[in-house]
Design brief:
There is one protein chain. It is built from 15 helices and 13 strands. The chain is α/β, with parallel strands linked by helices. It folds into 2 domains: 198 residues, Rossmann fold, CATH 3.40.50; 138 residues, 3-Layer(aba) Sandwich (Rossmann fold), CATH 3.40.50.720. An 8-stranded mixed sheet has the order 3-2-1-4-5-6-7-8, sandwiched between helices. The chain has a 5-stranded parallel sheet with strand order 10-9-11-12-13, sandwiched between helices. α7 packs across α9. The protein is globular, with a radius of gyration of 24 Å.
Length: 428
């Protein structure tokens, strides 16, 4: 394997862990990106974001010479395999934005060498490899299965998870030829300690990622709707979920102030929009997105109600929004509900303070202690360990916090209420 080479285009949250893993397994890895600051950090072995695997492997693989980063796409001519890990977002109208993917594939086409394997890891809807990627690569007369190979292996990574990461999550692989499929599957078997599933077609591989995250989105929407109902009925949704979980067939999902990250709030739209092109309407998926998209505004509405109970208005109240990252104990802010919550509060005239221990560059305050001294009320957006460990009832009472709106249901409700602080969770 030490004689094998791979380029990873896009060395962000998905591409860099893959690059580090492949380099650690003996591959010569070229990380290609258009972000010079990111390239410089990688070449200096500076971890650009919080990721335990990258932290473990980056310095080791850079020092060994197995991993280098560059903005020179001409270097693609020197590798055998190219993995594309660029973002595939949606625009303001929730339409898939393929511009980063198209740009990357065009650069590959300009430097494509006979026999190369191109693997698309970016999340895409069924049909993108054949309808968008392949026509670009075949411009100029090259043919898939003869001059190059095209495969799709949707990325799988779970930021902040101490157990599951790119090195041990099973992967699905599809390709446009049997040879391409075998080559792609072998690459992943070389570096990943988990089953590699060879799909019957490239469309099937494309579909796996979109339905994985649509499944989660639907279940989250269900429990968010239940939470809103239970807010009206006076039932604690957390206790109910714990009770229902005693049945072997129940799969617990938890309500919150919003769905963040680059997968769950994005991927369902890829399936929704693709189905619309063939005349099918994914009504269920659309409703789930509608419910989950409304949770930040619903959270602010709950917060307003709780302030009113203690004689305060949103306008003028020093409100501390705790958490900017979309998920606990990571620094990733992509699609975080925090931004919409902050915007809604400011529209209503709130005096907004923000604090996230892992996203200090986007925080107005630099410590939790400082934040509590200034704030009159708290709105929890991210269930960071620091918040769960330090925000007990007595601490809140000591700092004269009037209201806590727990958007993640992560604090001890009984302890806070016992201390005489007004507490409200989502559905409790």
């Amino acid at each position: 394997m030490k004689n094998q080479t791979i380029a990873v285009i896009g060395i962000g949250y998905v591409g860099l862990p893959l690059a580090c893993l492949a380099a650690d397994k003996g591959y010569q890895v070229l990380g290609v990106d258009i972000n010079q600051k990111l390239i410089d950090k990688v070449n200096k072995a500076q971890v650009p974001f919080k990721d335990d695997l990258v932290k473990k492997l980056l310095k080791k693989t850079v020092q060994s010479g197995n991993l280098k980063a560059s903005n020179d796409f001409k270097l693609l001519k020197k590798v055998e395999t190219i993995a594309v890990c660029v973002p595939t977002p949606v625009d303001e109208n929730y339409q898939p934005d393929f511009k980063p993917l198209i740009s990357a594939v065009q650069r590959i086409k300009e430097n494509l060498v006979k026999g190369q394997l191109v693997i698309i890891e970016s999340t895409i809807n069924p049909g993108v490899c054949e309808e968008i990627v392949l026509p670009i690569l075949e411009q100029g007369g090259k043919k898939v299965g003869k001059d190059f190979y095209l495969a799709h292996a949707p990325e799988r990574i779970n930021p902040g998870d101490p157990k599951w990461n790119v090195s041990n999550l099973p992967r699905n692989v599809g390709a446009l030829s049997k040879t391409g499929l075998k080559k792609a599957a072998q690459f992943y078997r070389d570096i990943i300690d988990a089953p590699i599933n060879e799909m019957q077609s490239i469309k099937e591989a494309e579909a796996t990622k979109t339905i994985e995250n649509a499944f989660r989105d639907i279940n989250i929407a269900f429990i968010n709707e239940i939470a809103k109902s239970f807010d009206q009925l006076g039932i604690d949704v957390v206790d109910v979920i714990k009770g229902a979980s005693s049945k072997f067939s129940f799969m617990a999902h938890w309500p919150s102030c919003g769905v963040g990250g680059h997968c769950i709030p994005v991927d369902p739209y890829y399936l929704i929009r693709k189905a619309e092109t063939v005349g099918f309407s994914h009504d269920f998926l659309k409703l789930a997105r509608q419910i989950n998209n409304h949770m930040p505004k619903y959270t602010v509405e709950l917060y307003q109600d709780e302030l009113n109970k203690v004689g305060l208005a949103v306008k003028g109240t020093k409100t501390a929004v705790l958490g900017i990252a979309y998920k606990a104990d990571i620094d990733d802010t992509r699609e975080s509900p925090a931004f919409e919550i902050i915007e809604e509060l400011k529209k209503m005239g709130a005096d907004v303070l923000t604090y996230d221990p892992l996203v200090l560059e986007k925080s107005t305050e630099k410590s939790l202690k400082q934040t509590l001294k200034k704030a009159q009320a708290l709105l929890i957006v991210t269930d960071h360990s620091e918040f769960k460990e330090k925000l007990d009832g007595q601490t809140l009472k000591k700092n004269n916090i009037k209201v806590v709106l727990d958007g993640k249901n992560c604090l001890d409700k009984e302890d806070i209420v016992k201390a005489g602080v007004n507490y409200k969770g989502i559905g409790r």
